[in-house]
Amino acid sequence: MARRSAAKDCRETSKMTSPAYFRGLNHLLNEEPDKAIDVFVQLVEVDSETVETHLALGSLFRRRGEVERAIRIHQNLIARPALSRDHRALALLELGQDYMRAGLYDRAENLFIELKEMKMYMRRALENLRTIYQQEKEWHACLRVAKELEGLSPESLDLEEAHYYCELAEEARGRNEQDKAQQFLKKAVQANNECVRPIHMQAEMAIEQSRYKSAVKLLRQAAEQDCDYLPEVLPQIVECYRRLDQMDELKHYLAGLINTSPYTGVTLTMADLIRQTEGEQAASVFLGEQVAAHPSLQGVLKLIEINEALPDAQAANMLYRVKEHVQQLLAERPAYQCVKCGFVASTMHWQCPSCRNWSTIRRQPEIREKMK
């Protein structure tokens, strides 16, 4: 027994101090990754110590963007017959992430499904599957995975599920399947009744069917539910009131919003309405008061535009030059920004292209400046 114990200790010491292993590490330190990989994959014996080294090395290569090298290392690990079940599962997870980074979604999906069947690293496997299905726009699969994740994750996925149903509704609308689209939108509201997207989509469908009264009700509901969403629905609210020939009702609605909403677009819309019904002079007086109380670049620009129509040609010339500068400043500003990661964009996105979160893109607040 003593001899066997001593022999075992000797083998373990030899393994820990393997010249090949040190040679591989030396290649790695000398920035010769290909030679280092060749040495590591040729090592026949893999124990708990060398597995961790392989996994750490593969993860390092993936983070550096050297995905092919990471794949080679993790494939070599999985091919080892002596690998324990836990280590094999971890290697499968790492290899799946390698495939995802390389854009090989089908291969990655198969590995994550295998992990799910093994009941190993299920939460991480499901989260990666959800990412893949979102990328491939497989919204039914996203819903299925989200349901499975609900029992494993402390975070609610209700908002994501609502957006998945909205995406399915968009596809149904593209196929002119209006009834099916309405069913998906109802499920979206049931999934998360605070999400404004299904309400807005229902309003858009009502507009397409010339049901302007219903559309106004839905659009106003969306604006009341999320005040940050008002800029997206206000133009459609105005158009619906025009279609209904209820301009006095629109004026009353805008007057109420001016007192409660900081959005400059409400003031500009009211100025346009006054201009059409009462003339440039009345619109100029109204907008001048609003800009004095709440300065904004867009407000100044609209004021310049209205004053250009007034008789004083000299003032109009001066205002026109200022107008060009203000237009340039506005054009250079990104209109939208993600509240999670800070990603900026010129158009509205339901899902942030950078951090992949849903409903985090918001219109940028107006730049306030002191008017001298």
CATH superfamily of the domain at 15-150: Tetratricopeptide repeat domain
Number of helices in the DSSP assignment: 19
**Backbone structural class:** mainly alpha
CATH class of the domain at 15-150: Mainly Alpha
N-to-C terminal Cα separation, in Å?
94 Å
Number of strands: 3
Q: What best-fitting shape do the alpha-carbon axes yield?
A: elongated
User: Which parts are unreliable, with pLDDT below 50 for 5 consecutive residues or more?
Assistant: 13-17, 367-372
Biggest sheet statistics: 3 strands, antiparallel
Strand arrangement within the widest β-sheet reads: 2-1-3
Structure description:
Residues 13-17 and 367-372 have low confidence and may be disordered. The chain has a three-stranded antiparallel sheet with strand order 2-1-3, with no helix packed on it. Among the domains are: 15-150, Serine Threonine Protein Phosphatase 5, Tetratricopeptide repeat; 246-323; 333-372. The longest helix has 20 residues, at 313-332. Helix content is 72%, strand content 2%. It is mostly helical. The protein has 19 helices and three strands. 31% of the residues are buried. The protein has helices at 2-16, 19-29, 33-42, 48-63, 67-78, 85-102, 105-118, 122-135, 139-150, 158-174, 178-191, 197-208, 212-225, 230-244, 247-260, 264-278, 280-293, 297-308, 313-332, and strands spanning 336-338, 344-345, 361-363. The radius of gyration is 31 Å and the shape is elongated.
